[in-house]
Amino acid sequence: MSSSFFFLPFLFLLTVSSAAIPPPTTTATPLIQQACKVTNFSQQCESTLSQFKFPPNPTSLQLLQAALAASSSKLATALTMIKSILDASAGSKNRTLAATICLEVLENSNYRISLVNSSLPSGKTKDARAWLSAALSYTYDCWYALKNINDTKQVGETMLLVDSISILNSNALSMAFNYDAFGNNIASWKLPKTERDGFWERPGTGGGGRSGAITGIPDKSKADVTVCKGGGSGCLKTIQEAVNKARDNGGNGKKFVIYIKEGVYEETVRVPLDKRDLVFLGDGIGKTVITGSASVGQPGVSTYTSATVEGAME
Ligand SMILES: *[C@@H]1O[C@H](CO)[C@@H](O)[C@H](O)[C@H]1NC(C)=O
Ligand SMILES: *[C@@H]1O[C@H](CO)[C@@H](O)[C@H](O)[C@H]1NC(C)=O
Ligand SMILES: *[C@@H]1O[C@H](CO)[C@@H](O)[C@H](O)[C@H]1NC(C)=O
Ligand SMILES: *[C@@H]1O[C@H](CO)[C@@H](O)[C@H](O)[C@H]1NC(C)=O
């Protein structure tokens, strides 16, 4: 596994393994096939959605909510499995820690998915995308935590399930991106070139609404707070201090943008669940690096910090 460093969720989005799930044979309707074309795991997407009963001409919202329901139901199973790993881990610090981390991040994932599901019908599609992206990072984090204790059949099976949840969340995210950009017009849905392309509307389109623009990232110069190595001259010393400054319960969906300047930050960043609208911007992969290793001193645990750091890096 790629060490105790991480470069915020982007790296994780790029490095997740594809699951060892056999390609299912399904007869997905043309509409489902069309919607699934935009996902990274289109066969799993088709087989997942084909298990649902839809009205004759389902809307994209109905498809998306079905994708979320599938994820939510597997998450419930995974949570049960991880609880029993935890129960069986008394006496091993490593196992207890890994299972605890995994449990916490998957609960977060589940929470985000329910937020996505409830915010979509009211048109909060940008929030939905951000939350879904977080839900996806959380499942990767659980997977990485379990990888350190993969020495029983129980853990191996749980990892397979968590992997399949990552796939469902990834697919749902791609669909949510398209739903945000193109709405119900599934014929115009397309595969985002990169996560970043998919994530932000072009600056200056005013936010809200469906602009159809699929590029652009938040502007560093308009960051709410800046973090730099050593602090000073208007910037904070730690990412945690910046997170602590963010509003609780968000501000009408307005993002709180934290710009983290180039440097290696040795800290474990904890983002409470009620701080919902955080965006992390860095100076680029390999330039802004967060390592949590100093905080816990156990291999693998550093990835936990990625669970709590969500948003976009440029
Ligand atoms: C999603 O929301 C719909 C209502 O819009 C509700 O019927 C459904 O149970 C919810 N599903 C999940 C997984 O929360
Ligand atoms: C977990 O361990 C099992 C048994 O050693 C192995 O087959 C599997 O590939 C491992 N999974 C991962 C994701 O490392
Ligand atoms: C889909 O795969 C591409 C290429 O690996 C990756 O950049 C992107 O983040 C993935 N999207 C999702 C939603 O997982
Ligand atoms: C627990 O983690 C420590 C520190 O990383 C490692 O040296 C040790 O081998 C692990 N113990 C078990 C039982 O896996």
UniProtKB/TrEMBL annotation:
The protein's Enzyme Commission number: 3.1.1.11
Sequence ranges assigned to domain Pectinesterase inhibitor in this UniProt record: 27-175
Pathway(s) the chain acts in: Glycan metabolism; pectin degradation; 2-dehydro-3-deoxy-D-gluconate from pectin: step 1/5
SUPFAM superfamilies: Pectin lyase-like, Plant invertase/pectin methylesterase inhibitor
Single Gene Ontology BP annotation: cell wall modification
Domain of life of the source: Eukaryota
Reaction equation(s) it catalyzes: [(1->4)-alpha-D-galacturonosyl methyl ester](n) + n H2O = [(1->4)-alpha-D-galacturonosyl](n) + n methanol + n H(+)
Protein's name according to its UniProt entry: pectinesterase
Lineage: Eukaryota, Viridiplantae, Streptophyta, Embryophyta, Tracheophyta
